[in-house]
Write a structure and sequence with these properties.
The complex is a heterodimer of chains A (89) and B (474).
Chain A (H helix, E strand, L loop, with lengths): L15 H4 L3 E7 L5 H11 L4 E7 L2 E7 L9 H14 L1
Antiparallel strand pairs in A: 1-3, 2-3
Helix pairs in contact in A: 2-3
Chain B lengths: L14 E5 L2 E5 L5 E4 L1 H9 L7 H8 L9 H11 L9 E5 L27 H11 L6 E7 L7 H18 L2 E7 L7 H9 L2 E6 L4 H7 L7 H18 L7 E5 L8 H10 L4 E2 L1 E2 L14 H24 L5 E2 H11 L19 E4 L4 E3 L2 H6 L5 E4 L5 H5 L2 H9 L20 H8 L10 H17 L2 H11 L4
Classes of the chains: A alpha+beta (89), B alpha/beta (474).
């Protein structure tokens, strides 16, 4: 998984919380994970972040931006587990 | 079975199978019992008399719900699954893919000695050590494999010393082992191994003719190259009991089936205290021996049973000699502490129990996975990723999920407490991590071995021998 976190702090104190931007990429191997399972998960998580799906070689690369602050530390694990549960189903 | 009804109020958790004329029952903590059909019916229907000896024995083994000692049951369950709470302990390092042997069953995609670009660099080796020590497990084993690891001796020394340095602060229980064919061993390397408390494991496939057939050596006789050093190691061990004992692994190929006694005799001859009779994995070059899986299972089990009968006979005559694969299963059958054998766990040890660091820094879920070389078992690269990123990789989540027995038909098998599945093997043989585990190659092997062991456990003399193997006195 390519977990990259970028925090952009606004120089003017008040707006700092709103301007926090988190960027994360998760890679799912096409031989294990279906695009359908990923899309279903994105649908379930659509209110928690913005998602962009790309393909690179044998991987689906899911880019997450504008992640809700209260879930920023857990979304990666939860999202991955949800996709896996969709694969199993 | 259709006519009897399970009394859920009185009967504890149970799995069962027909075993000869009797019923064999097990529960989640590995306790087992043989019941005559009549008693089995009474037990299932909750009709056993509380004063009856049988009732008390079953109750003691947590098969009866009445007055169940839940605290003890939970403790034992926790002990048997303790491996879930510690993180990766076994770290296999492939210092080089180059090798001076051409083993017919090579599973490691080895390259010849002249090949370029297959040695681990110091930069990668340093990153491997950093990653290893990020594991939360207080027990760390670093195991060098190859190719032939001694081909890249400078990197081995570099990792050993970097790990020792790192461990001065980390204070983990560090264990280092080296898997080598011994052909490139010399006294300087031997002294280094002793000084740094490195345990050594070699390969010995049996008598000279068989060993040389399985393990051709470009520069001559592989049997002589290996056994000349086995002899030296064993002589040193006799003089200094504090040294780690040299161990050896045998790989059973098709050519081995004719020699069940001779292979055991070879191990006795060199002073080994046991042997691990392992079937081929059908990964790498060994895949070409897969004429038909069912035939392979049949042939291997026939060979294994003959060898086991011979080993038991040796023990009955008073000499201690064990079969390691059986001992691992027996530990799960007769003990409460899981031996943490990574192939016989739920989930298996891939990633969460072991990681393999390839020469180029790529990290695989396990040794078997790099043999397959498939991208779906790659967790990242030590030059780019840290331990947390490796351990939480979606590929590893899937492999873990695929080896949880409770998620598969194995959950209905009476042997479930003693067994495990291998997603890598599933992928290699059936093209799917989630292949049906029931009745596949490994399943047939495990059932064959467990059937044999449980049959032998009904003989008190043999049961005593098995307990001796495990160090159980009573």
């Amino acid at each position: 998984m390519e977990g990259r976190l970028f925090r952009a702090f606004h120089p003017l104190g008040k707006e700092v919380q709103k301007k926090i931007k988190i960027f994360m990429t998760i890679s799912f191997n096409k031989n294990i994970y279906s695009l359908k399972a990923i899309k279903k998960t994105i649908q379930a998580y659509k209110n928690l972040a913005k998602f962009k799906v790309a393909e690179k070689g044998s991987y689906f690369k899911i880019e997450l931006t504008d992640i809700k602050k209260e879930i920023e530390t857990i979304i990666e694990d939860e999202f991955c587990n949800y996709v896996l549960s969709q694969v199993k189903e | 079975m259709d006519k009897i009804k399970l009394n859920k109020k009185k009967v504890g958790f149970v799995r069962y199978k027909k075993f000869g004329d009797e019923y064999f029952i097990t529960n989640e903590i590995g306790r087992y019992f043989f019941l005559k059909p009549n008693d089995f019916n009474k037990f299932i229907e909750g009709k056993l008399d509380k004063k009856d000896k049988l009732y008390k024995e079953l109750q003691k083994k947590f098969f009866i719900k009445d007055d169940l000692n839940s605290e003890d049951l939970i403790d034992i369950y926790q002990q048997r699954n303790a491996f879930l709470f510690h993180g990766t302990s076994l770290h296999i390092v492939v210092a080089t893919l180059r090798c001076n042997y051409n083993c017919i069953y090579c599973q490691a995609s080895s390259r010849n000695l002249k090949a370029k670009g297959f040695d681990m660099s110091k930069k990668t080796a340093q990153a491997v050590v950093e990653t290893i020590f990020q594991s939360p497990n207080p027990n760390i084993t670093i195991e060098f494999q190859g190719g032939e690891p001694l081909v890249n001796w400078p990197t081995i020394k570099f990792i050993v010393e970097a790990a020792e340095k790192k461990n001065k602060k980390a204070k983990k229980k560090l264990f280092i082992s080296l898997v080598t064919n011994l052909s490139l061993m010399d006294s300087e390397k031997y002294d280094y191994i002793v000084k740094h408390h490195i345990s050594v494991c070699t390969s010995l496939d049996g008598p000279e003719k068989l060993h040389n057939l399985n393990r051709p050596f470009v520069n001559g006789n592989s049997y002589q190259a290996t056994t000349s050093w086995i002899k030296k190691f064993k002589e040193k061990e006799k003089k200094d009991r504090s040294l780690y004992r040299l161990s050896a692994l045998v790989t059973i190929s098709k050519f081995s089936y004719k020699y069940p006694k001779e292979i055991v005799d070879e191990y006795l001859k060199w002073g080994f205290r046991g042997i691990h009779l392992r079937p081929l994995s059908f990964l790498g070059l060994s895949n070409k021996f897969k004429d038909s899986i069912d035939q392979s299972v049949k042939e291997f089990l026939e060979f294994w049973r003959k060898s086991m009968d011979y080993i038991i006979d040796i023990n009955l005559k008073g000499r201690f000699f064990w079969e390691r694969g059986s001992a691992i299963m027996l530990k799960k059958i007769l003990g409460d502490i899981d031996p943490n054998f990574l192939d016989l766990r739920s989930p298996c040890g891939a990633g969460i129990g072991q990681m393999l660091y390839n020469y180029d820094g790529k990290v695989y879920t396990c040794d078997e996975a790099r043999m397959l070389g498939e991208d779906i078992f790659v967790l990242g690269n030590v030059l780019k990723n840290n331990y947390k990123q490796l351990i939480s990789h979606p590929n590893l989540r899937a492999v873990c999920q695929a080896s949880i027995l409770e998620n598969s038909p194995c959950d209905y098998c009476a042997y479930k407490p003693y067994c495990g599945v291998c997603p890598v093997s599933n992928y290699a043989l059936y093209g799917d991590l989630f292949a049906p585990n029931a009745n596949n190659y490994r399943c047939q092997l495990s059932i064959g071995m467990l059937d044999y062991l449980f049959k032998k456990l009904q003989n008190d003399k043999i049961k005593t021998i098995f307990k001796k193997w495990l160090g159980i006195k009573k």
